[in-house]
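I am still getting used to backbone structure tokens and would like to learn alongside you. Would you supply a protein for us yourself, any chain you care to pick? Start from the sequence, derive the backbone structure tokens from it, and show both lines together. Go ahead whenever you are ready, and we will take it from there.
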Amino acid sequence: MTTDFPASSAPLSPSDERTWAMLAHYSILLNLITGLLGVPVPLVIYFIYKDRSAYVANQAMQAFLFQLLWWIGGGALIAFVWIVTTILIAFLIGLLCIPIAILISFIPLVAIVYGVYGGVKCNQGEDFRYWLVGDWVSGSFTPAP
């Protein structure tokens, strides 16, 4: 007895799973060109493939939340730190804050490297988990197989 799935709900092959999971992580590279357009891409991948692959759904949701936290949240933190540093320069304390502000400004670049690393691991077929995000996503957002 064979089970015929409609084309849109057929389970993904392992190769397709690895590819879509990798693309969800690599979407962080779109942020370099567009600013924020990379953030919704893994969410779109999640909604398209959540019923077809728990692996892709898990990886896409992790990539989405990771980008929200480290790209958008990191950008807000950077803006805040530079505003405070600029205000404190009037009191000369801000000059001491400049090296800290410069270090914090590297958060998005570190996030890009980590996102690309996640894409490489997914392409190799590994179950990649972001630090602080992976376990939470696995327990909360991944649909049951």
The radius of gyration is 19 Å.
